[in-house]
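Thread: quick sanity check before group meeting

JM: Hey all, I'm pulling together slides for Thursday and realized we never actually wrote out the predicted structure for the chain we discussed last week. Dropping the sequence here so it's in one place. If anyone has concerns about the input, flag it before I start.
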Amino acid sequence: MMERVTKRVVMIPVDRITVLNPRSREKRRFQEIVENIGRVGLKRPITVRRVPSKDGQEAYGVVCGEGRLRACIELGQTEIPAVVVDASEQDCLVMGLVENCARRQHRPVDLLHDIGTLRKRGYNDAEIATKVGCTQQWVNMIGSLIERGEERLLSAVETGILPISVAIEIAKADEAGEQALLAQAYAEKKLSGGKLVKARLLLEARRKRGREVDNNAFGRKEPPRSPTSPTALLRIFQQEADRERVLVKKAELTQSRLMFIVEAMRKLRGDQAFVQLLQAERLDAMPADLEARVAGRTS
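JM (edit): ok, ran it. Output follows.
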């Protein structure tokens, strides 16, 4: 639980403010902040807390707004409006993480770090979702990527290359090469939705067959080669889909033939002369499954 936080806004000399948790920033984004503040001024004060100082004078540490502070310094400003909070160091850290997560524009690595830090500090997904203004399901999916160490997939989600649900599905692939191939296939719109799931399962099955061939000392077949491009993956996927369609047609044909045989045997079973003939030739015994179907004991 966070302690109660009291706030007040004051003008503070920038040379009395230190950054408690410095972060690296994209130069282009920082320059945009500088230009915006230089043009219209600072719209939102930064947030600081009091910290001990060696000279005994008032000193502050940045809780939220490091970029705004550095931009004001860049513009030559000597003071900056700030909200002074009386809160514990832990609560200030959480406040800073929440603001970083809630920003509309943030780096994927920052998102990974901040949500991961909140989790390590004992906050569950529901509490994190409330703090950053997202759904619990979204935080849970992000959390699963964090647990797997999937910074690359998380980056793809944040840049709009992959939806979070697709990234989660791709993360289920065990091999990094397979993950990259699936992500590229989705980005190039060669595979999407359910097809992507089937493609992942297909890659896993091919890898498994490859291990079985390698483990068989007498196996004559070569292990199936892994696709090296989205085009090759799509070609294999289409071949597998064609094979499945053929199997389905064969299964349907077999089923119809079996139904014909069952109905024919039922009618012939009703012919006493035919039954006596079968008994005389010792052909009256049928496979158990067919016998059950003819007798109507199974569908």
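AS: nice. Residues 46 and 82 are 5 Å apart (CA to CA). The longest helix spans residues 230-269.
JM: adding both to the slides.
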